[in-house]
């Protein structure tokens, strides 16, 4: 599969940008999820995901496989797009967006999920933004330590140590035992190696 991806990238770099759709299809869900967990807002995540792929397509000639894999390059673009968004964002909250009233989804389930995510987010604020980002990439985005290292510019060993410290903190905080059990149960379902 990696060789197939390399061929698509080379064709895109040769000017066959219609081939970029295959890369888009392969990474859209992962990039959207990555951005959503940083913004916690569906429409914002959709907009930033679109921007990420437009930037990637526009800059495809700058991708160099000798400097890392395409996935890490794409995540770096997504990460920088989110950073740019927050630098220029004016704080404004639309009540309909917060409650997602336009959606016909189960409101009670949505509120429960938002509450649980808020609890997790509140706990993660105890850590530096760079630490939070690594934990989110590891557990929610299911990235390997090597991929996280390529995205953040840190070593894989340092990323692993940060995750270990956060998990140790969760285990020591009895009020977060449920969160810890949730993460452990997700480890059984998610390929976290």
Mean pLDDT: 78
What proportion strand?
A: under 5%
Q: Which word captures the global form?
A: globular
**How many helical elements?**
10
Structure summary, number of beta strands: 0
Q: Give the N-terminus to C-terminus distance in angstroms.
A: 19 Å
Which sequence of SSEs, written as H and E, runs from N to C?
HHHHHHHHHH
Plain-language structure description:
With 193 residues, the chain is an all-alpha fold. It contains 10 helices and no strands. Helix 4 crosses helix 8 and helix 7 packs across helix 9.
Summarize the structure.
About 75% of the residues lie in helices and about 0% in strands. With about 190 residues, it is mostly helical. The longest helix is centred in the first third of the chain and has 20 residues, at about 20-40.
Fill in the keyword field for this structure.
globular, 193 residues, 10 helices, mainly alpha, disordered C terminus
Annotate the secondary structure layout.
Blueprint: H1 2-13, H2 20-39, H3 42-58, H4 70-88, H5 95-99, H6 107-124, H7 129-140, H8 145-152, H9 156-172, H10 177-189
Helix pairs in contact: 2-3, 2-4, 2-7, 3-4, 4-8, 7-9, 8-9
């Amino acid at each position: 599969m990696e060789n197939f991806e390399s061929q698509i990238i080379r064709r895109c770099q040769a000017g066959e940008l219609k081939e970029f759709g295959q890369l888009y299809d392969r990474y859209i869900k992962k990039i959207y999820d990555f951005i959503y967990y940083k913004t916690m807002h569906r429409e914002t995540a959709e907009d930033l995901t679109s921007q990420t792929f437009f930037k990637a397509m526009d800059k495809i000639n700058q991708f160099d496989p000798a400097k890392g894999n395409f996935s890490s390059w794409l995540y770096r673009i997504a990460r920088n797009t989110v950073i740019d968004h927050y630098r220029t964002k004016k704080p404004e909250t639309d009540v309909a967006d917060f409650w997602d009233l336009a959606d016909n989804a189960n409101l009670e389930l949505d509120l429960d999920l938002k509450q649980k995510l808020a609890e997790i987010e509140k706990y993660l604020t105890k850590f530096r933004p760079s630490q939070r980002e690594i934990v989110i990439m590891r557990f929610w985005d299911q990235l390997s330590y090597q991929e996280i290292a390529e995205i953040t510019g840190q070593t894989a060993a340092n990323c692993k140590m940060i995750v270990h410290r956060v998990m140790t903190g969760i285990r020591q905080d009895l009020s977060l035992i449920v969160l810890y059990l949730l993460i452990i149960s997700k480890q059984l379902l998610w390929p976290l190696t």
